[in-house]
Design goal:
The chain has a 4-stranded parallel β-sheet. Strand 5, helix 5 and strand 6 form a beta-alpha-beta unit. The protein is built from 8 helices and 6 strands, in the order E-E-H-E-H-H-E-H-E-H-E-H-H-H. The chain has 2 domains: 193 residues, Aldolase class I (TIM Barrel, Alpha-Beta Barrel), CATH 3.20.20; 31 residues, no CATH class. The chain is of the alpha/beta class. The chain starts with 8 loop residues before the first strand and ends in a 16-residue tail after the last helix.
Length: 232
């Protein structure tokens, strides 16, 4: 911060590993952050984005408020799960109200912290139901990475979040999309076909192979641009 960095805030003065110590967010900080999320949603609409997503996982501030591992407050924003959800739900409501009703708002939700005493799938299911009541359109299901501890990372297992997505879909009634460690197009198609998810989100697999979907459909030349046909 002395070299021009951000003044970081958190629910409590709990650092991420050996990084700088954040200060506990005041009520004014919380109000301002809610307003900033809403402003960002309005700016996204002006920039002609069709969808916005709220990040409530991977150690970002909304995840930090949700998890008892990083949240030691005793005011109305701390303690029991309902209080810990208060700030994230304020943000979700503000973004939903700021973004056009006909355009979807997604939330990246943490299914579990993978650490004893952290968010469990049961707590995530309660949060998912509350998000449904706010009017959120889809849950982007992930987990972990709240702590700078290898044990807080999702296991290296293909489709690790599919079962969580299925659970949250049944609990909330919302469409869901698991993300992370899905690189097989057949697996992705099967998950959707069987109704365990409504979509599948991919990141690293597409970074490794931007043509992943086209390679999966290599036997269908009509899927490829004409310029590629001689190479098929």
């Amino acid at each position: 911060m002395g070299e021009g960095g951000w003044d970081t805030i958190a629910p409590s003065t709990v650092p991420f590993g050996d990084l700088s110590l954040p200060r506990e967010a005041s009520h004014a900080d919380i109000d301002r952050t809610v307003a900033d999320f809403a402003h960002s949603a309005r700016m996204a609409h002006h920039a002609r984005y069709q969808v916005v997503e709220i990040q409530a996982s991977h150690g970002y501030i909304l995840h930090a408020f949700l998890s008892p591992l990083s949240h030691h407050r005793t005011d109305e924003y701390g303690g029991n799960p309902q209080n810990r959800m208060r700030f994230p739900l304020r943000v979700a409501r503000a973004v939903r109200e700021a973004f056009p009703a006909e355009n979807p708002v997604f939330v990246r939700i943490t299914a579990t912290d993978w650490v004893e005493g952290g968010i469990s799938i049961d707590e995530a299911a309660v949060f998912a139901k509350e998000l449904a009541a706010v009017g959120i359109d889809l849950l982007d299901v992930t987990s972990g990475v709240l702590l700078r501890d290898v044990q807080a990372r999702p296991p290296a297992r293909e489709g690790v979040h599919i079962e969580f997505a299925d659970t949250l879909k049944k609990a909330s009634g919302l469409p869901v999309a698991p993300v992370g460690q899905i690189a097989d197009m057949s697996l992705a198609g099967d998950v959707v076909a069987r109704g365990r998810a409504d979509a599948v989100l991919m990141g690293r697999a597409l970074l490794r192979d931007p043509y992943l979907v086209l390679h999966h459909r290599r036997d269908d030349p009509s899927s490829w641009p004409n310029q590629y046909h001689r190479a098929l």
